[in-house]
Amino acid sequence: MKIAIPVYDEKLDIFGNTGHTPFFAIFEQKGSGMFKKIDFVELRQNPRGNVEASGGCSHKDEDMSKEEQIAHKNEHNVLGEIIHDCKIVLVKKACKNTAKIFEECGIKICKIRQDCQNAKDSLKYITF
To answer: Which domain of life is it from (predicted)?
Structure first.
């Protein structure tokens, strides 16, 4: 099973806003229980990446027309494409459009503790 985590770069520090993460760190879990092993596989670049947007998005649906809302949601489709083969994405924050895309792609969203700073550390707190 593959797991995606939004990160800044190869240091694997967690990026706060999933929709604008520069990269997704991809991990793969093999085995289960006491035989579970999770290994780092690769980084996948997000073309929507925006380091300045770590704290959250500035777009609000209530400020957009219906057409703009649809276009904005469609911009998020690339997120599902990037991690299409992952079963889980671990996030600190995700806007409703990001969450909707992952849901449509069958990718389960799990929250990361806010005090967790590194992708490898976040895997310790999640039970799959």
So the answer is: Bacteria
